[in-house]
């Protein structure tokens, strides 16, 4: 179907620029934070164009069927459904990932988890065939990104949600790393193969305090999976379990790398220090200067 009419047969039809202006007005009136960006991304998605192509074509008319579909997308956004769920994709680590409401939307802050994991991986000899466990993998964004950057690594990615794992497997296939990323369903370490130890254990576990979930923005509290958000009554519930169990699953001199809530660094550092074997415990900031990642190593390399 031709979504945009050419100038010869477009008489009487609204132009893309007019459609955008109407959408921006609706989104602004609905209290959205980035109405122009949202309107452009959703119209580009509706027309199967890049944003650059959309802006270049803004003086062309839009056919009525496409305009109706676009109005439906704007209505969904006004219900505070995240743009990523509407389009079904989100960029992370310069790759496009499929996302649905079964998985958290990958955040730019989580790229810091990938960066710190790569720094820890670089402390091993270059020829090391690294084994990495990615706990609470969700969409698989971290596991797939690490596989793309570490061609000698084999990654075991786990999640308690079978629906999330289905999305993650699709993302691994889309980025051609299925041979080196193994997915399994289960609760944290219970999903890992018995008897295998890991050079790196990474993860972005749920860490939002249970009574604070409802206080989050509606894009999160209404739409993102509660299972992936709920960190228990005080937040660090999953970190306690991970800190206690991780030494049994780490190879000698292996490292644990965890994304944290911005106010949880002291608690997570204390948990790692309290388990005994961990050394070199460090807090890493995100690019807004907030505490974002804690890393800990079993010993010096």
Average pLDDT, to the nearest integer?
93
Our estimate of the beta-strand percent is 15-25%
Low-confidence stretches: none
Q: What is the CA–CA distance across the termini?
A: 60 Å
CATH fold title of the largest domain: Rossmann fold
Going by CATH, the homologous superfamily of the largest domain would be: Vaccinia Virus protein VP39
> Can you summarize the main beta sheet?
7 strands, mixed
**Number of continuous helical runs:** 11
Strand order of the largest sheet: 5-4-3-6-7-9-8
Describe the 3D structure.
The chain folds into two domains: 16-79, Orthogonal Bundle (Helicase, Ruva Protein, domain 3), CATH 1.10.8; 92-297, Rossmann fold (3-Layer(aba) Sandwich). The chain is elongated and about 75 Å long. By secondary structure, it is of the alpha/beta class. Helix 6 packs parallel to helix 7 (141-149). It is 38% helix and 18% strand. The strands form two sheets. A seven-stranded mixed beta sheet has the order 5-4-3-6-7-9-8, sandwiched between helices. Strands 1-2 form a two-stranded antiparallel sheet.
């Amino acid at each position: 179907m031709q979504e945009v009419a050419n100038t010869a047969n477009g008489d009487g039809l609204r132009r893309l620029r007019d459609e955008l202006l109407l959408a921006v007005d609706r989104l602004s009136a609905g209290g959205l934070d980035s109405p122009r960006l949202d309107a452009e991304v959703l119209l580009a998605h509706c027309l199967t164009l890049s944003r650059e192509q959309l802006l270049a074509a803004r003086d062309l008319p839009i056919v009525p069927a496409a305009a109706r579909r676009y109005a439906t997308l704007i209505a969904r956004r006004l219900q505070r459904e995240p743009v990523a769920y509407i389009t079904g994709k989100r960029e992370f680590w310069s790759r496009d990932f499929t996302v649905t409401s079964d998985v958290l939307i990958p955040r730019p802050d989580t790229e810091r988890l990938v960066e710190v994991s790569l720094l820890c991986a670089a402390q091993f000899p270059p020829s090391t065939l690294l084994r990495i466990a990615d706990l609470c993998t969700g969409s698989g964004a971290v596991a797939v990104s690490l596989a793309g950057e570490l061609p000698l690594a084999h990654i075991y990615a786990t999640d308690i949600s079978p629906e999330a794992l289905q999305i993650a497997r699709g993302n691994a296939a889309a980025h051609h790393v299925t041979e080196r990323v193994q997915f399994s369903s289960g609760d944290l370490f219970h999903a890992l193969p018995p008897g295998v130890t890991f050079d790196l254990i990474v993860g972005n576990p749920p860490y939002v305090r249970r009574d604070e979930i409802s206080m989050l923005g509606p894009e999160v509290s209404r739409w993102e999976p509660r299972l992936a958000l709920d960190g228990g009554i005080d937040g660090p519930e999953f970190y306690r379990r991970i800190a206690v169990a991780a030494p049994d699953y780490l190879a000698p001199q292996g490292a644990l790398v965890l994304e944290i809530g911005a106010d949880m660094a002291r608690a997570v550092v204390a948990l790692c220090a309290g388990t005994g074997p961990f050394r070199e415990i460090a807090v890493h900031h995100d690019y807004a200067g907030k505490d974002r990642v804690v890393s800990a190593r079993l010993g010096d390399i």
